[in-house]
Amino acid sequence: xxxxxxxxxxxxxxxxxxxxxxxxxxxxxxxxxxxxxxxxxxxxxxxxxxxxxxxxxxxxxxxxxxxxxxxxxxxxxxxxxxxxxxxxxxxxxxxxxxxxxxxxxxxxxxxxxxxxxxxxxxxxxxxxxxxxxxxxxxxxxxxxxxxxxxxxxxxxxxxxxxxxxxxxxxxxxxxxxxxxxxxxxxxxxxxxxxxxxxxxxxxxxxxxxxxxxxxxxxxxxxxxxxxxxxxxxxxxxxxxxxxxxxxxxxxxxxxxxxxxxxxxxxxxxxxxxxxxxxxxxxxxxxxxxxxxxxxxxxxxxxxxxxxxxxxxxxxxxxxxxxxxxxxxxxxxxxxxxxxxxxxxxxxxxxxxxxxxxxxxxxxxxxxxxxxxxxxxxxxxxxxxxxxxxxxxxxxxxxxxxxxxxxxxxxxxxxxxxxxxxxxxxxxxxxxxxxxxxxxxxxxxxxxxxxxxxxxxxxxxxxxxxxxxxxxxxxxxxxxxxxxxxxxxxxxxxxxxxxxxxxxxxxxxxxxxxxxxxxxxxxxxxxxxxxxxxxxxxxxxxxxxxxxxxxxxxxxxxxxxxxxxxxxxxxxxxxxxxxxxxxxxxxxxxxxxxxxxxxxxxxxxxxxxxxxxxxxxxxxxxxxxxxxxxxxxxxxxxxxxxxxxxxxxxxxxxxxxxxxxxxxxxxxxxxxxxxxxxxxxxxxxxxxxxxxxxxxxxxxxxxxxxxxxxxxxxxxxxxxxxxxxxxxxxxxxxxxxxxxxxxxxxxxxxxxxxxxxxxxxxxxxxxxxxxxxxxxxxxxxxxxxxxxxxxxxxxxxxxxxxxxxxxxxxxxxxxxxxxxxxxxxxxxxxxxxxxxxxxxxxxxxxxxxxxxxxxxxxxxxxxxxxxxxxxxxxxxxxxxxxxxxxxxxxxxxxxxxxxxxxxxxxxxxxxxxxxxxxxxxxxxxxxxxxxxxxxxxxxxxxxxxxxxxxxxxxxxxxxxxxxxxxxxxxxxxxxxxxxxxxxxxxxxxxxxxxxxxxxxxxxxxxxxxxxxxxxxxxxxxxxxxxxxxxxxxxxxxxxxxxxxxxxxxxxxxxxxxxxxxxxxxxxxxxxxxxxxxxxxxxxxxxxxxxxxxxxxxxxxxxxxxxxxxxxxxxxxxxxxxxxxxxxxxxxxxxxxxxxxxxxxxxxxxxxxxxxxxxxxxxxxxxxxxxxxxxxxxxxxxxxxxxxxxxxx
Length: 1191
What we know:
Elements lengths: L11 H11 L5 H23 L1 H5 L6 H17 L9 H21 L10 H28 L1 H28 L4 H8 L4 H10 L3 H4 L14 H19 L11 H36 L18 H17 L11 H20 L5 H29 L2 H11 L1 H17 L7 H18 L6 H11 L4 H16 L1 H5 L13 H19 L6 H17 L1 H13 L3 H8 L5 H10 L9 E5 L11 E6 L12 E6 L13 H11 L3 E4 L11 H15 L14 E7 L1 H15 L19 E5 L13 H7 L9 H14 L9 H8 L10 H13 L3 H13 L12 H4 L8 H12 L20 H4 L5 E6 L5 H24 L15 E6 L15 H26 L1 H6 L37 E5 L29 E5 L74 H13 L10
Parallel strand pairs: 3-4, 3-5, 5-6, 6-7, 7-8
Antiparallel strand pairs: 1-2, 2-4, 9-10
């Protein structure tokens, strides 16, 4: 060790003498060459890490660059030492220089992320540079064997300088000099050429040609005699190596590799392990701990917090440079001691990051500098010790093989940061493969009884246990350990344990497994393979229920529209469709028929509506039908066609014997609100104006129509009914006609989504609707659930006294005046709470609540109470609402009752038809259902009382709410149970109940029609929506002409083909003149008619036979004309109601009224903040990713 100047035993002259003696025998050319080798080989690694943000952009984790820069180098150092000795050094240098240059050129020349370039090319270039760096390090360290300890010292100093030079040069080039990132990287691609110049020009070749000259007195090999023999043999081998013509052709044989593995095994504990430990601690500090070491800016020399980490890195690199340059002056032989000190540094800095006990940032600076000193010291002294303690014949291999420790330490530190820091989901694939490969290799090549510690136990047990016993025992204990918490009662509570009934919980278990299986197989490209994989994964998740729950929970947290469609359309995939058809009983004799319903002439859309007709009878029997069920299926507004509800629709068709028209309306986000609502209303409008001829009915009478819908379809069904009630009212647009459409004869709704405002707390008005005396028995379970919300949170704690109780106590004295109530309440609060500050609060509370006592407790909405529902979660509700509304609409959620029918005005609800609703008590939407039913009941009651006051109702007659609305709440059941008939048998009972309701509605409509015939005769026998007839001389006797149908039903499983002529006007004296329109044609006699015929067997949809022109493919809109044929744009909201007359007849004439304004506004401007926010949210759900802009 070199004594310091000024010490008692030294002087400046003596110091200079010893300093000169320390460099005695050093060749300047060798030192310069190896210093450049170390600098250039490592500087590219530093430049790449410094440019990580500029290379991949802010959206890609910087750990990707680190992994691409470290793992290839680690793999090269791990494998290459066992075969690279057959490649001459000159060839190695050329190869590594080419790899580095090509890699940096790929990184520099590929388009940047701002220009839309892919990062795959850049990652490939980084990998090439990393392979070059790893191979160069093990090769140049092996080369130091020929040039003595000064070459090793120069190499270490050059690698230490690379950290300072690389980061500083890149920062100067891109900031001070103003060079672009591409130019700076192109310049760095020229740096590897320095290694070629150093090797072939600066470096002396004589030590390689005369290897004995490289032997210095500083080498102390073990065994003098063996060393001489080894030197003699090595001389010949080295001369052969210098000539770069290997004489032995069997160096790559397995025996040679096994010998090298034995050499590497002997290197692990004395050299590899200390170097590994110091790098694990060092890079754990740099990557994980250092970014958290922050102090108040007023106590530091920095102006910004982002300056801390670069300062730490610069101080660390300075320590590394100094220590790696220290071998000529300072040596250590115990490598574990500095490794232990480095671990101590890690512990200290980690504790400070947790408990913040270091008072000054300058102490952290000193620790970071000390960390760099220890890291560089262990690095250079490890290889120096190998040069002294390893036999000469093994030295070259040992130097190269030990280099794997530093890269291995960096990788392990990355794993530690991955586990303790923010986990990377993409990195888990590498982690799993690494663990699998490691243990597979160990089982194949390692000792069959395992590591030395357990080898004796394994060998002893193997004599007593067979392979079968061992396998079964291992799996049995794994199963026991996994369920140990359940056995001893320490498992976490199951939130759904008491939420559902047993049968419904089993159904949700199957549904969750299906969702998890289909979502797992989403990315499989071939459709046939994806269908098979979906079923295979489903079978797995049926047994691994916890894995299924975890999979579904994570997917729902990052939902896209594709996830929703895969989940809800899974029932129409080939194998599940075949299975459902197999287990479903035969409900009808006739299959459903595809059909298209044309738009009414006043509509602003021209594309017909796709639908499916469910009718248990031949097509010829349709003309005898006078009732129609218009079904609107659910699916969150984004998925599910009528075929997904086959169980329900076939059962209804078989039981009611009534044609069911189930709409396959266009879905969001391609067709956002209000497209689907307008489409449903158009179909209703067409059925009414054509008297059902668009379905194949005779058209002689107005058909009775019942609207049905489930979930989102229930929202659209109620919205359609509200629009029908609005038609002909004040401010209604003319496309709805100047006369009021007849209202539906009833509605049957299943778990409808009636409120787009996802609320957390129930208002007092909402609670009063639920607590209404007439509905208290029906809503008993809902009220009980809300009363239990508080009790579940405090099962073992008694709540404190309420202010209301204090007021009651303070005012119990009859002599207490009203002005003293506040004072009395304050006094009570002071006595009970022992706090002066609460007295004033009690005074204010007493004064505000004394006039009017609160009537309801704090109640949580069902959406929050059932937030863990397995069928419908808040994340799904959020996604559906955003997708349905779209990024360019901004409706008023507090007033738009067509979006949230629960907000419908009382004037409309008073005219609403009879409504049946079935829903589950555990449905997150149950509150909105009972609130809507309560508002409907309240509106009918107010109308009934007004009629009694006017003498239109008998004063003794009692109000019967079941004449207007009935709600069936199913205990222990949540959302979507009608879709689960295949594995939830109770669904059939509820499906049949809905069919009975539909029959009751048609019977009630028939009774109303009979009772209203007298009133119609009082109006001169005029019938509304009268069909104009012609006499025998005037042409056709009716407007409906059928052909090519006959009485046979043999081909009725094929789609129907419809073409609609001029529709019958609402007012016979005022025909609508819309000009030439698509889907319209006349017969030879000039009479408008409808054609109903079978189409080709290969058609899946109805093809219109009219000569319509090509319109907009996405919306099918016409330019907006003026006059009576003006088209509508949006669903209406603003309303002025006419006098209520629905108690007289289903449709009495109303005078013409004004048109209405639009209900929602379109926001095409990207400047609007809320518009951009909605655009961003919808874009994320639709998978647009970075294209969406979210402020």
